[in-house]
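tool_log.txt
---
The assistant was asked to compare two proteins side by side. It first ran the structure predictor on the initial sequence, then on the second. Raw inputs and outputs are pasted verbatim so the downstream comparison step can read them without reformatting.
(1)
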Amino acid sequence: MNDTLKQSWWQRLSGGLTRTSASLGGAISDLVSKRKLDAATIEELEELLIRADLGMDVSARIAAAIGEGRYDKQVSDTEVKTILASEVEKVLAPVAKPLAIDGSAKPFVILVVGVNGSGKTTTIGKLAARFRTEGRNVMLAAGDTFRAAAIDQLKIWGQRTGATVIAREQGSDAASLAFEALTAAKNEAADILIVDTAGRLQNRTELMSELAKLVRVMKKVDASAPHAVLLVLDATVGQNALSQATEFTRIAGVTGLVMTKLDGTARGGILVALAAKHKLPVHFIGVGEGVEDLAPFAAQDFANAIAGIDSASS
């Protein structure tokens, strides 16, 4: 990424995470500016981090790191934020992995799953745009056959990006559509096939079993498909994202995460809790509606943005 692009992405990222960093940073400043770092302050810091959805284990670890060697001393909020960023980065660095496209798989099949409203279809459109810019031949399968709006939305993304769209009318069988799309993608030597799926709640058994069927049917065409299963998570749901990751991984074998809507919440810390608990690769994060607002996940940038530290120059 060149410096100008990096700068503009940092501005979008830090701007998108303003709600999270403001609520965290503001509370940290209030806390440490008034008194020395004693047991009560450290406990309050830990509670603050838990409220920001960083998870209990990570919050305890960060609070302990802040207290180390600074007991009964006055500390600056900058010092605390620097430790916060450093500890968050340690959790995130192992999961910050790009989505690797295996060129030998023709097509490379990406199955996109998640609950309704998580931003699946929009994410697919943005990924299609990214892959088309890289010069790849992309095909999209409108597997969310429950919602006419999702089918229409995918067709619009197809027109916008120059990707071929395989779609049927609302109410069609999603598994047979996936079978048809994968067969067509093979015949047309597409580089990448991205399959949309109906938004389903992780506690709706029949919908989850339909998802398992869709995976089975694709394997009849290509035993190695899908090559990637991306779970799109909406950051605004907070702790519920943890149970979504558990269930979708169990049913569909999630291989990586895309976290959307980080600009709409003060709960951006949930990504840290997810990384600590599930250790699933985080491929992309989204901080807005535009195509350029979905970008590969970088641990240091995210950690600095969440702590409210300027990373543009680093």
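(2)
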Amino acid sequence: MKRFFELLEHLTQASTSGGDTAITAPVTERASDVQPGGLFVARIGASFDGHTLIPQAVANGAAAIVGEKAPGAIACPVPYASVPDARAVLAPLAAAYHDFPSRKLIVTGVTGTDGKTTTVTLLHHILQAAGFRAGLISTVSALLGEGEQATGLHVTTPTAPEVQGYLAQMVEAGLTHAVLETTSHGLAQGRVDGVDFDVAVLTNVSHEHLDYHGTWEAYRDAKALLFHKTSRAAPKTGQPKVTVINADDPAAAFFYAIQADRRLRYSTVQADVDFYAADITHAPEGTRFTLNGTVIRSPLVGLYNVSNALAAMAAAAGLAVPGDAIRRGIASAPPIPGRMERLDEGQDFLAVVDFAHTPNSLRQVLITARALIDPGRRVIGVVGSAGLRDRAKRRMMAEVAAELADLVILTAEDPRTESLDDILEEMAAGCRCRGRIEGTDFFRVPDRGRALLRAVELAAAGDVVLACGKGHEQSMCFGTVEVPWDDRQALRSALRGVPLLTLPTAPGATDS
């Protein structure tokens, strides 16, 4: 239990009315999630005023409210505090309620456009192989000790109260380490404020989320917040502040300039770094390379996964994990859900699901797919691009697919409230500019289930069908509705000859 005024002491500015009270349940900004005795934070968003939900929060048992409106400007039957920016105080309040759990853990954050989920999963597995008790918060799930929880549909970094709650559960379970996947949105929106990081890892910075950040520089700067948070966080006994940087990324020097006790670089190209992968060999069953003369084996395929492995290994070294445990962890890494995940329904060609939803990640998985098949066999790519997101990416995705796949099928990928037909036309223009002919070597099949079936029907022995963009996700958004959807289940069904329809009434839900 905390006192309301006790929590407010961790804020720089607050005006109160209604007196003090006990806070016996967590902090939240969702009125529907308020528990009896909880603290509700109301903020004014771009399109909605959270203060209108105060009656619902109080009805659900909120003991106190924090908002942005002056105490005299709002009727509130429970203690109330006014702050200049409610979003900025959400994380500090949640951290204070849970007694600042990240201060009791050694915390690693991984950011980057691509490879975050793979890298955090590898690092978590390495820590477990070394005997550390480690928790994980990733796109796929939160591993909190004995339990596991889903972390959302289309949100990589959970809300600030959820992050603090997960970390508190790790502390309660007796864990010592935590690994967090941190997005540019999560960093910019303060979802990991109140987390004291010890190790910051950068995978890469490529074209993505410019609809939100505006410029590539602003996107890069958002990711750099993780590094600044790490350098400024209070030190923990025996653990230096460590940064891990992909030396092959154009932004490497920018991130390397940020202060840290120890700065590690990794590369598949440059030998004069701390972690350099030499003598890389690829095979369908995995990858092998040497690091300082020692052979490293990984079950993951693709050059980009060598980079992800190096990132995890460098982070583990920064956490003082012994070298033999690092090698064992990489060699025994489990499959990453929705990342180059192969499906076998007895077909005579490869069927693969991957989360590739950026131009760079799509390029890498198509190159990797090509390496998995014999010369003369074909890569058949099923590709979409999300609505209400970076529009420039649509044409870029199509151009990459047209450049590297033999056959391209354009289809739905979370069109949201945009016209699916319009999105596909933008992508079709990208295919045409690369010399592709619609109906011959690229196709539009708006319904994703039918698109996967079309790809399977086109496949011959030895080919590879690659379903890109959804990976592990468990829904697809049409309008404002999240419709249950799993690409792996849908592709398995297509391999059995039965298409799973995305949504019968979806715009453009018929073949064209």
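---
observation on (2): The chain is about 30% helix and 20% strand. Confidence is low (pLDDT under 50) at residues 506-512.
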